[in-house]
Amino acid sequence: MAYDPLSTALKFGFLAVLFLFLLVIARSAFRDLRRTAAPAPDATGFHVPAGHVEVQRGVDAWLVAERGGGLERDARFDLIGGLSVGRSKDADVQIDDRYASGIHIRLFSREGRHFVEDMNSTNGTVLNGAGLDGEAELVDGDTIQIGDTVFRFEAS
Amino acid sequence: MTRARNRELLALIPVALLLTAGFAAVFAQENAKLGNLSLTYGAYFLAVCLATHIYLRIRLPHADPYLFPLMALLTAFGLVMIYRIDEGLARNQANWFVFGLVLFALTIQFLREYEVLERYRYIIATAGILLLLAPRLPGIGEQVNGAYLGVKLGPISFQPSEFAKLAIVVFLASYLREHREVLIVGARRVLGVTLPPLKHFGPMLVVWGASMLLLVFIRDLGTSLMFFAAFLALLYVATGRFSFVVIGMILFLLGSWFIVATVPHVHERVEIWLHPYAEAESSGYQILQSMFAQADGGLFGKGFGQALIHAPGHPRTIMLPAAETDTIYPLVVNELGLFGACGLIATYLLITARGFKTALLANDGFSKLLATGLTAVFAVQVFVIIGGVTRVIPLTGVTLPFVSYGGSSIVANFVLLALLLLVSNRARREAEEGATSDGRGEPLGAPA
To answer: Which of B108-122, B131-145, B279-293 has the lowest mean pLDDT?
Structure first.
């Protein structure tokens, strides 16, 4: 125990440096928290939160039935909270089409832009006459075809 | 962008300083003299860290600047504490540290496009399960304290669950990336609770069943809890449904309650946890001594090298059993007190925060889920072992990442860090490019 004062000094020195170091890193973490606080209504970017951002902006995008699928012509479905289309009764837009999968596609909005994603459907989706691979951004007037069912996308 | 790397470089300096101070204090205590050996060790450590830093500067210039220094800090903690217990063990640990860094560099070199992992997900999952079950195989399995966690292949023995956790997280991230939609879309509300669709309940039940089987086979509550909690974290991030997490927790509690009641070894572990004084001299000794050691530390601890690992005058009487592995946290608390313990836990918290931030910044589903899963499994592992030695949950044989003695733990956690940095590098690069190209000056607004 001859070096007791030294040992104590080293212990407190160690703790002081440790906490200073952690404080510096924590400060930058808190800065990040403040910066993300505003633009992250949906932290993971996966889910459209139940309306809260989109409703404020107002409805600005619709899926409109053109023909087939047992849907009334010009039936409109708004994109608030995302929209799934398929033959299953769990789908938001249920279509009667024997080429459609249970959940065939889904439409969603992110940061004011709109997308369509093929949900690994068996027979695929046709977007403006070309096959849809994965997801694609939608613009006003696009046509989406599932089997014999045709939709039009409208955005304002 | 080299600013991130400059921050990393600056952050490494205090870490090397801490290691040097720690070694100096241990030397002062043990030899009653201050050699310059502690400076030598500090210089070695700094040199190894600098080499890694330069490698990161070339390979991953955009990656998170603080993850590596924080992990280096944990390693420094571990090296000082293990050196204080046994010089030979510390030398092994230092070798493992260097070997871990080599594997870290190799992972970064060969997995730059980490999406390839998605392609092999079923192979990876199978490998993970085999690794987990390996300790039960006759001939190579090893039983420690009744739990089957180790594998002995000739002269090498390692803990496969450390590597299995990486495999399982990669698999779950990739699986949930593809199937999260069906889990959300088909969900319906029953009595105000959102339930996943019955047919998609399958995967959840499979993972639950697997973690229950794990509990029966390797008899380690901690490992089982670690895997299931990581799964629930991923499920929550993938679906955004808190009810799934609650259902999962209830399932886990029911299942483990049943197994605790039926499997003798697990039952014994829980009994020790609930009534440590019943067998204070034998089975309850470790947990009781570990708590006494922590209480004895006080606010600022007794100083480096002062903790009693062996009873004075009776080198055979061990005061703190398994001090270099299971109870290394109580040893830190005893020597550095409540403040040291808070510093150590804060380090883990900051790593977790950086990890989740990486997940926030990432742009594609697999990256997000991978970063979340890796961070979650790391954080839960820390909880399981610190919770174990503080008697919050039953004590199990999980290591304290980067601090505990053990090659598998160090190496596997460096691979985990490499994957996290790979995700971080891409996410931050894309965020920066997005910020400069549309000139909004908002680096966190992830470009869609």
So the answer is: B131-145
Question: What radius of gyration do chain A's Cα atoms show?
Answer: 26
Cβ within 8 Å, pair B336-A88: no
Tell me, yes or no, if the pTM score tops 0.90: no
In the numeric block, the tokens 């991230």 are attached to B173
* Band (B71; pLDDT cuts 50, 70, 90): very high
Distance CA A130, CA B178 (A): 23
Number of domains comprising chain B: 1
Range of the domain at B131: 120-274
Residue B25 resides in a domain: no
Which B-chain residues 99-138 have CB contacts (< 8 A) with chain A?
A: none
In a domain, B3, yes or no: no
Which candidate, B357, B163, B89, places its Cα nearest to that of A26? Answer: B357
* pLDDT grade for A89, boundaries at 50, 70 and 90: confident
Residue of B nearest to A88 (CA): B186
Nearest chain A residue to B240 by CA distance is A47
**Nearest-by-CA chain A residue for B196:** A90
A10, A22, A28 member nearest B347 (Cβ): A22
B387 vs B330: CA distance, rounded Å:
11
**Cβ pair A25:B300 closer than 8 A:** no
On chain A, the residues whose CB falls within 8 A of the CB of B343 are 15, 18-19, 22
Instruction: Give domain status of residue B171, yes or no.
Output: yes
Q: Decide if B185 is inside a domain.
A: yes
What ipTM does this complex have? 0.78
Question: CB B28 to CB A3 under 8 A?
Answer: yes
By the 10 Å C-beta count (0-12 exposed, 13-18 middle, 19+ buried), B418 is classed as buried
> Does the structure show a pLDDT above 80 at B394?
yes
CA dihedral A69→A75→A78→A79, nearest 10 degrees, is 20
Q: Which of A12, A13, A25 sits opposite B66 (nearest CB)?
A: A25
pLDDT band at B330 (very low <50, low <70, confident <90, very high): very high
